[in-house]
Amino acid sequence: MVSCFGFEKERWSLYTRTGWEKTPCNLRSSHYDTGVVMSHHPLNLVLRFLLELYALVAIGAWGWSQTDGLLRLVWAIGIPLVAAFLWGAFRVEGDGGKPLARVPGWARLSLEIIFFGFAVWAQGQVSQMVGLAFGVFVLGHYLISYDRIPWLLKR
Fold first, then answer.
1. 22: CB partners within 8 A, 6+ apart
2. Which has the closest alpha carbon to 122: 107, 139, 134?
3. SS3 at position 30
4. Nearest CA to 26 among 45, 43, 9?
5. I want to staple 35 with a disulfide (CB 3.0 to 4.6 A). Which of 7, 16, 21, 88 is the partner?
6. What is the pTM assigned to this prediction?
7. 74-98: string of b/e by CB count within 10 Å (b at 16+)?
């Protein structure tokens, strides 16, 4: 048994580009030796998921603030739905589940920049301070995921 963060475990699973590997817990800090990439670290994946959800909320809030009446609902629900569809449909092979439409890595990276850029801008239109904070979190995520950008560009 090995102690990991105070919990007794026999093995600690680490995610690598080739999939989940069983590795002793005490080797988790040497992720370069085991092939672990920061862009697939579980905590970073949770951060990414939360940023994606918040981006959709920010886009919806911006859409809501653009007009009145029934068109307000169309903008507040429709634009985030289109953004979510584009986000989920156009992916690179090997980056998540099976893509609906395979795109080259540079196209996926461009989509991500446009998606998060628009979400940060939209949130900034609704609330500048929250938009700034959201932008810092998005930038921080991409700095933590530094290994993913060259990987995408090679695809």
1. 11, 12, 13
2. 134
3. coil
4. 9
5. 16
6. 0.75
7. ebbeebbeebbeebeebbbeebeee
Integer Cα distance of 32 and 30 in angstroms = 6
Which of 122, 56, 113 minimizes the C-alpha distance to 85?
56
CA 106 to chain centre: 16
Among residues 2, 26, 155, the alpha carbon closest in space to that of 93 is found at 155
Give the residue carrying structure tokens 């994946």: 45
First vs last C-alpha separation in the chain: 40
DSSP of 77-139, one letter per residue? IIHHHHHHHHHHHEE-TTSSS--SEE--HHHHHHHHHHHHHHHHHHHHHH-HHHHHHHHHHHH
pLDDT in tens, 3-47: 444 444 444 455 555 555 554 444 333 333 345 577 788 899 999
